[in-house]
Amino acid sequence: MKKASLKDIAQQAGVSTALVSYVLNGKEKETRVGEAIAQKIRLIAKELNYQPNHLAKSLRSGKTHTIGLIIADISNPFFANIARVVEDEAKKNGYTVIIGSCDEHAEKSWDLLNVLINRQVDGFIIVSCEGSENQVHYLKERNIPFVLLDRHFPEIQTDFVATNNYKASYDAGIHLIKSGYKKIGIMAYKSNMYHMEERVRGYKHALRDNKIEFHDAWLKEVHFETMDSEVRTAIDEILASEQRVDAMIFATYGLAINALKYITELRLQVPSDLAIVSYGQAEVFDLYYCPITYVQQPLEMLGKTSVEFLLKKLKNPDEGMKQILMEAKLIARDSSKPKTSAVNG
Amino acid sequence: MKKASLKDIAQQAGVSTALVSYVLNGKEKETRVGEAIAQKIRLIAKELNYQPNHLAKSLRSGKTHTIGLIIADISNPFFANIARVVEDEAKKNGYTVIIGSCDEHAEKSWDLLNVLINRQVDGFIIVSCEGSENQVHYLKERNIPFVLLDRHFPEIQTDFVATNNYKASYDAGIHLIKSGYKKIGIMAYKSNMYHMEERVRGYKHALRDNKIEFHDAWLKEVHFETMDSEVRTAIDEILASEQRVDAMIFATYGLAINALKYITELRLQVPSDLAIVSYGQAEVFDLYYCPITYVQQPLEMLGKTSVEFLLKKLKNPDEGMKQILMEAKLIARDSSKPKTSAVNG
DNA sequence: TTTTTTAGATTAAACGATTAAGCAAAATAT
DNA sequence: ATATTTTGCTTAATCGTTTAATCTAAAAAA
């Protein structure tokens, strides 16, 4: 029992496929289909449990109602959460999502892009990785609709939905300072990605605005690929330095996890030995013996808005560029509680 | 500058599209295409950067090289990790994966199934949820290839790849008993899913084989949807009961997380007040002040094998049924360390 | 020399839908 | 009664491939 096609319905109804198509697409008015025959077609369609063939539709229309989501890694909770939001929001609008993980690797990202372009996704939502500017330019040139998510390139005019990382880091810095910490370090990825630079810049400005001199040794930049080992070295160094820090900001969830493991090994007490504020969010932060203060990014909003922007663009390609920076929220916990009883609760 | 099609190449080469198709699909030998013309076609194809249109191919062949992966929730680390493995393994074989989250909800799962069938995925990898037996039967009837992953229905003959949950729970129980715990509870989902029942059965048998009488109060079954509140009640009850437990097994990651949060609130010490073994795996288990003993499922193998089974089935639909149960590994940590110095290190 | 075979190409249908264009009959206008 | 419009439907091209069937000329065999 094969799937029923338009033709099958047409035959049973004794009409042409055109009529069937018109009726089933609700164009009976414009195309003046007789009411009687329309009824009949609808009935037969229901009887045969007709399901239109997406492939054929897509081939004809050039639209697949599919969007490609390129992220670093679906097994990372941040991206997994984003993916879930995107999936739901897309489904709500009749779109299907194909997710690809590029491991922060421009080459993989490029492969994914091509695979998905070949599969004729209607558009992309992309969490760009370092060195993928050419890909963004490529999409622009080829006029393939896309929205950058979470990260963007300020020197390239694109739609994007991201977090105000500068502000988030600034707030994190201020928070630590207000809590009485004066020697504050930050660990970030070695990267010239704008979002990462902003996370560092915000931190620096928080220091500056509070007359705290920034020391180069306080900034630790590690490579994504070799994070596991580099984080340890970095922590060793930052604690051994002349200007030993009493607090640290971790610019990503991955960094924080690695650091926490090492800090636990070292039997350092949080926050007395080292106060902590981290980006990202996950169960660990709640359940760590000293709950971790973190920068809560508006995941839901980021995901939803990116889908919204993309779909609008698909409906109307000529619509203006949409760019939005959303504010993160600092969730204060014990890992950054006031150093002395002097300040705050 | 539109994408080049077979026709474009054919025109430039001054031949028919058939020839181009033959050459580009490596059928030049069987179909006796002249060597000279074949060269020319390949050259032009390269020049025009020809990329075949997947939609057209699929429409013709009935194969989309796409597989549907239905899981409970991509934002759950267990499934996210599985998804990643599946994604990679599929890509290695030229397949694309479409992931759908059904939230342990048979109705959503059914929707997803239909959406994906309509999108003509070639086959499915499914983590079944409660009450989805009809869906499995449906797939069998319609002869749509699929492999059940992580969970299966023993009363339905299907391909599947799963963990030996009975053995895993049995091992967990034995481990606790050997560590000196005698009053061991278990928390699971209220469910008649086989994998969940097996997790409970293994635990019970571990008790039985060690002459420990099982008390009904030791088994706490909570509903997935209302887990947050029910877990608390369950813990309260199991601790207040006459046969207060000194150790607990959590049958899923989600249960463990909720329980740990509450246990922390209650200021219970792990393992002295309550020893713990949990299913699932994630950073939390490492970073909890008392690292959590957990049942490590062979994620990578599960994912890989499920893809392998499915692809084999796609190649050769008549191949026999493939079923495999993989062994989990208990990772012993401090949360279940020996109660007295009597046993073990 | 005639017939058969073979190499090398083309034609056209098919996959399942959409849709512009066309056509005949009925209804309306002149 | 004739011209025009409207109604209701069909035809056929199209999207980009694949592939069975066919064709043609040249080569091989009879």
UniProtKB/TrEMBL annotation, chains A, B:
Segments forming domain HTH lacI-type: 4-61
Keywords for the protein's UniProt record, in alphabetical order: DNA-binding, Repressor, Transcription, Transcription regulation
Keyword Lipid metabolism belongs to the record: no
GO molecular function: DNA-binding transcription factor activity; transcription cis-regulatory region binding
Family matches, as Gene3D superfamilies: 3.40.50.2300, lambda repressor-like DNA-binding domains (1.10.260.40)
Pfam families reported in the protein's UniProt record: LacI (PF00356), Peripla_BP_1 (PF00532)
InterPro entries referenced in this protein's UniProt entry, alphabetically: HTH_LacI, Lambda_DNA-bd_dom_sf, Peripla_BP/Lac1_sug-bd_dom, Peripla_BP_I
Name of the protein in question: Transcriptional regulator, LacI family
Originating organism: Dyadobacter soli
